[in-house]
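Hey L., structure's done. Input below.
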Amino acid sequence: MSITLVFILLGLPLVGAVFNIAFGKRLKRPYAGVMASLFVLGSFVLAVVTWLQMMKLPSSQRVANYTLFNWISVGSLHINVGAYVDPLSVTMILFVTGIAMLIHFYSIGYMSHDKRFSTFFIYLNLFVFAMLVLVLSNNFVFTFLGWEGVGAASYWLIAFWFERPSAAAAGKKAFIINRIGDFGYLSAVFLIFSYLGSLSYSHVFGSVGHLSTETITAIALLFFVGAVGKSAQLPLFVWLVDAMEGPTPVSALIHAATMVTAGVYLMARISPILHLAPGVGLFIAYVGVITAFIAAMAATSQNDIKKVLAYSTVSQLGYMMLGIGTGQYIAAIFLMVTHAFYKALLFLGAGSVIHGLNDEQNIKKMGALRKLMPITSFTFIIAWLSIAGLPPFSGFWSKGDVLAGAYQSSVILWAIGALTAVLTAYYMGREVYLVFYGGQRFDSSTHVHESPKIMTVPLVILAVLATFGGALDLPISNKYRFLENWLSPVFGHALTASTISSSLRFTLGALDAVFALIGIGLATSLWRKSAENPSAEPALLRAGWGIDRFYDRAIARPSTQLSATFTDVIEVKVIDGTVMSLGGLVMAVAKIVRKIQTGYIRNYALYISVGALVILGYFVTRAGV
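Output:
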């Protein structure tokens, strides 16, 4: 592997952004998007080349630690701009650049009429660049640069249509909530440096065993706080639900291939730390599975086509954290990859529907689109069957691995995960039936049309991946466990060995299929012919359990009132009042003192004489004593 190749791969999206900053507005409408897409395509091609080169090496030699230049040197702190290339980072760059490339090309059609067309692609390129920095860097500080980069890019993209108050508020919400997670990440980094004196991955992971259990546990939990913010887990998931206020390709990029996967990647990367932190894994698993269940319940009652998918992403990320927490890191990464396939397909399919219905997003105002938008409907249904976990689609294999690992760790974890699987098949089935089946509920004057090929071709490619992506890691035999064989050297002893027999694994797999069929059956019976079932849509779930409202009333409004109090009372009456009072006191004293300054020499001579007599009298009396 060549250091030049790796850093060209990393830098191409940045070059694309700079190109469009310089020339984007001068190009005719589609070409700024085409150029941005080609730069990301270049990164994907180089990612494939990197993977092929690494495949030629023995598994023990599939690690390269490159340094481009020294970035920061202060005392004993030395931070390099460098890349850590191993099977985990290569897996990440393959699906990040591949999915991002498809979303870029799709966006050429979706954003074709937007007046800030070139600006949109600048932000998309920067988003991909930041994500590549995050997954390729070889130290925690350079990783944090990418970590903050995806946060900034998400703010720009979520609030892209900032003329809408809801979009501007959603962008700010995402940015602020993620700063809470940043506190955990930075605190963990400070602890690592204070105890180990280095922040490079190779040094930290080689030395972490010398730390006390308490220190390792604190570091692991603090990193998890960062992951909770980025990967939208309880209690910080509310920003991701509102992130769909941005253009639909943004939602696809955030939910499928970039920002939200960063937290899961971080947890997988620090597996040597998690492995030595007793109890932290189980805590992560319970946070993940509870998040998955709560989000899935909320998704069952949403009417916005993108909000259903947003809650779905929160839920699927919970599954990934369940895999991380139970030591099934490969299962978590497997689910991350297949989720990128079907979730990108779902969001881009939703975008195609919105595009065809003149920006309508309420699924209760859709229906009967299956014949009017055949490509969109067919590919969307494939994504539904995949996320539902129906064999042989990719979601069946990846989610099955996570649930099998959960069963091995705790029956309770497995039971909650299994119930969530039923809910997943149900709420996605509800969306499919309300959008593509039943009677027409949209305005008859609406000219419904299938999306152009620049949008439907990515849908077809993603549908193929969502269908056959499970072939990456089939549990049929060890030789078909491609992803497991590829990633196992990365995690080593941190992986929890499987103790499940072949017969039990088959039984669990059969149950996974049954769960999917139950959810599909419920959705079919309730929504195949009806668009109104109020009893199946509780207001509490439609409001997302009221969690956002609680935060608004318990934190946001009191904080706003406190700020107003500081502005009107503390600032004006206390701070300004104190300063003005001191000024008034000085002026009053000055009025008295300035009477001494008469300008007459005889007065000054008198003052000097009196002063001299007082001093002389003082010394005479002292001498007498």
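The chain is about 70% helix and 5% strand. Residues 354-541 form one domain.

-- N.
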